[in-house]
Structures are given as C-alpha cells and as structure tokens.
From TrEMBL:
<keyword id="KW-0732">Signal</keyword>
<feature type="signal peptide">
    <location>
        <begin position="1"/>
        <end position="23"/>
    </location>
</feature>
<protein>
    <submittedName>
        <fullName>Localization factor PodJL</fullName>
    </submittedName>
</protein>
<dbReference type="InterPro" id="IPR006597">
    <property type="entry name" value="Sel1-like"/>
</dbReference>
<feature type="domain" description="Peptidase C39-like">
    <location>
        <begin position="258"/>
        <end position="378"/>
    </location>
</feature>
<dbReference type="InterPro" id="IPR011990">
    <property type="entry name" value="TPR-like_helical_dom_sf"/>
</dbReference>
<dbReference type="InterPro" id="IPR050767">
    <property type="entry name" value="Sel1_AlgK"/>
</dbReference>
<dbReference type="Pfam" id="PF08238">
    <property type="entry name" value="Sel1"/>
</dbReference>
<dbReference type="InterPro" id="IPR039564">
    <property type="entry name" value="Peptidase_C39-like"/>
</dbReference>
<dbReference type="Pfam" id="PF13529">
    <property type="entry name" value="Peptidase_C39_2"/>
</dbReference>
Length: 424
C-alpha cells in the first residue's frame, strides 16, 4: 500500500512515465495524421506498425502502401523496407533486381540497406556476384554501427569464402560486432577465442550471447537469427567439454568440421563444400555451386550436388529413409555408425510455416555428433554463426529431417535424404 505522503510523488512518477512512453511511442492516430500530411518518418513508422501488427491489425498491403510513399520521398530506411519486401517475396512478388535497386539507392544513408546491398552482391541477388563489393558494403555498415554486417564480414574473411582469408581483419570485425552487442558477433569472437585456447573469454562471450534472447535446453534450426544465436551461445557452453573429449562409440561422438557461412540461398553447396573440406578438399561454397547447372542464388538439386562431388574427385552416395518412425530409427542408427567412425553426414530439412514464401522452405546442413544419454544430436549449420554448431533433440530431428523436393528425381516423394562418404 502507498502511504498518503507518498501518493503525490507516486502520481508524479506515473505521469512522468506516461509522458515518456507517449513521447517514445506516438499514438496510432497521431501517426496516421502525420503520415497523411506527407511526413516520411511517420509513413514508415505506420508501415512498420501494419507489418508487425503493433496496435493495429496486420495489413501487409497497407504496410507496403505507406512504405512506398515514404520511399518515394527518398527516405533511406523506407527504401530499405520496400527493397527487403521484394527480396523476400513474402508480401509482394519476389523481384531481387528491384530489391537491389532500392538497397543501392539507400545504402549510403541506411546501415541496414548497406548490409542488404552487401547480401545482394554476395549472393548474386539482382546483380552479378561481387564478393569484394559485398565485403566493402558490410564494412561500411559495420562502421555505422551494424553489428550483423560486422559479424558476416568476419565470417567471410575467416573462411575465405569469396574473398581472400584474413584472420587478423576477421578478428577486428568480430570484435566490432561484439562491441555492438550483435549475438552472431559474440558467437564468432567466442569461437576465435576458443580456438586460441582463450577459454574464459570464449565462455564470457557465449554467455553474453545466451542472455540476449530467451533460451531453452535446446533450440531448433528454424528459429529467427537472433534467437538462434542466443541458443547457440547456450549450446556452445554445453559443448565445450564434448569438443575437448575423446569419442565414446555408442555414447558420444563429435566430428570436427570446418564451417562456411552460406550466402543467400546457397545452403546446399555450402554444406557440401564443408563436407568436401572435411575430406581434405579446398573448395568454397560458391565454387561448388558453380559446378552445378543452376544459377547462383537459387536452390540446388541434390543429384547435381552429387555430380559435383565426383567432379572434385570425392566419392559420396545419396541414401534415403522413409519418413515414418521406422525410417527414422534406421536413419539415426546410420547416423551413429557414421559418426562413431568419425564421418559427418549431410541431411536436408524442411521447415513449414507462414513466415516462409510459399509456406515452406528447405535447408541443407550436416549432423556432426550425438550425445546418447541426452538423446541429442549436434548440427553443423551453414546458416548460423561460425562454428555453426547447434544442439537438436531427437524429436526435433525427426520433425525437420525430411524433404520431398531435394531433387527432381525424388518425384516429390517425402523421405529422409542424406549424403554419406562412400566406402571404396
């Protein structure tokens, strides 16, 4: 209970707080009035409200209408908003060449547009691929305070993916990303420290990453990037012991794999490049993709990936299991045999949900370990921060490891596909 003498003070504090909240969050009516009067910042704020259903029913058409009106006035963040809609293709028809134009128009003023422009150059989205230009734009965005741009540049330089490797510059950019509290940056810097046997520093950065978003005992690969990085921090803390232990067949296995952070829509070729590097190859994800007939920035047929492995002198085979419980039991028995023998396995996942264009998406990644006592598997995922390691429960693995479109010869039959190293 508040005493009589404290009531005036309490009331004043409430009024002050209400004033601050009002100043920080304009009312919908005020935004609508300002937007109608032609103020681009208000138009963009209104677009974001409609997109995110903040205080108003979700309305993607209204969001695009208001964002376009702000973009037409040259508002940099509105240009980025519209560009990203065309890049993603979930609200409007996907047109990467239009997205590229919007990002390019805004990149000098908007750090997010600079990051997205780098993504387009890196992943050949709406333009010819130019990894050097991508790196330049990511560095510009990082200098303006974009942490994800700094961590993405660090990963490209660390693995030499599309650019010459530069460990010193990668470390500088990872430190910049961590300074900006980017969860991916904290993961990457922590990994560089782990490899340098700076264990206390690595633990501190992974702990910090894990505290940025809610985490659970394990996550899953369909999480948003921020949540995935926070969960990665928690997973890496748990995996420190296992990464330093000798395997115990039937109980625990961990296969050390190189990691390459994929570009836009290049998970299949990137996962296969890491698989090839594990076997002594030097190929990058982009060069692996160029061995396949499909254009850069598009999905890759698994039979084309298999053909590409033969072109670089490696011997893989594609095996499949039925999508039922019996098939999963056979598939996980195979996984453990391969992992116990010190060999990772490439698998294909299918994600289902309204957040994906067309209602679903596919993703290729590797299984590189298991912890039998906890019924956990260890993934090496090209879509997340280096070292790409994530823990996944057996139940989630069963749910995600399935595909009906991993290759034309699959004829849309749902199965659990995998690449394994063929015995010679």
């Amino acid at each position: 209970m508040i005493s009589t003498t404290m009531k005036p003070v309490f009331t004043l504090l409430v009024m002050l707080l209400a004033t601050l909240v009002t100043a920080a969050e304009p009312s919908l009516e005020h935004l609508q009035e300002q937007a109608q009067q032609g103020h681009p910042a208000a138009q963009l704020s209104l677009a974001i409200r409609y997109r995110d259903a903040k205080g108003v029913a979700k309305d993607d058409a209204a969001a695009m209408q208001w964002a376009h009106r702000a973009a037409d006035q040259g508002h940099a963040d509105a240009l980025d908003f519209v560009g990203f809609a065309y890049l993603r293709g979930a609200v409007v028809k996907r047109r990467p060449e239009v997205a590229f134009g919007y990002f390019k128009a805004a990149a000098e003023q908007s750090e997010q547009a600079a990051f997205n422009l780098g993504q387009c150059y890196y992943g050949a989205q709406g333009t010819e691929q130019d990894c050097a230009k991508a790196l330049d734009w990511w560095k510009k965005a990082a200098a303006k305070g974009h942490g994800r741009a700094a961590s993405t540049a660090a990963m490209a330089l660390l693995s030499g993916e599309g650019v010459a490797p530069d460990a010193a510059e990668a470390r500088r950019l990872a430190e910049r990303a961590a300074e900006l509290n980017d969860p991916c940056g904290l993961i990457v810097l922590g990994e560089m420290q782990f490899q340098a046997v700076e264990l206390d520093a690595a633990k501190a950065n992974w702990t910090k990453a894990a505290q940025l978003h809610p985490t659970k005992a394990t996550g899953h690969p369909a999480q948003p990037s921020g949540n995935a990085s926070a969960q990665q921090g928690a997973d890496l803390l748990k995996l420190i012991e296992y990464r330093q232990r000798k395997a115990e067949p039937g109980k625990f296995a961990f296969v050390h794999m190189p990691h390459i952070h994929q570009g836009y829509n290049n998970c299949g070729s990137t996962a296969c490049a890491t698989f090839a590097r594990f076997q002594g190859g030097k190929i990058s994800g982009w060069d692996f993709k160029k061995l396949c007939p499909s254009p850069l920035g598009t999905g890759t047929d698994w039979w084309h990936l298999l053909d590409a492995s033969a072109k670089i002198g490696q011997h893989w085979k594609l095996i499949t299991f039925t999508p039922d419980d019996a098939g999963f039991d056979e598939a996980t028995a195979m996984l453990k045999r391969e992992l116990d023998a010190g060999r990772p396995v490439v698998v294909d996942f299918k994600y289902i949900g309204p957040q994906y264009s067309g209602g679903f998406a596919g993703h290729t990644l590797s299984v590189c370990g298991y912890i039998a006592a906890e019924n956990l598997y260890i993934l090496c995922n090209p879509a997340v921060a280096t070292p790409g390691l994530q823990l996944i429960t057996s139940d989630d693995l069963k749910d995600f490891w399935r595909s009906d479109y991993y290759g034309a010869r699959a004829k849309a039959v749902l199965s659990r596909p995998a690449f394994v190293i063929e015995s010679r």
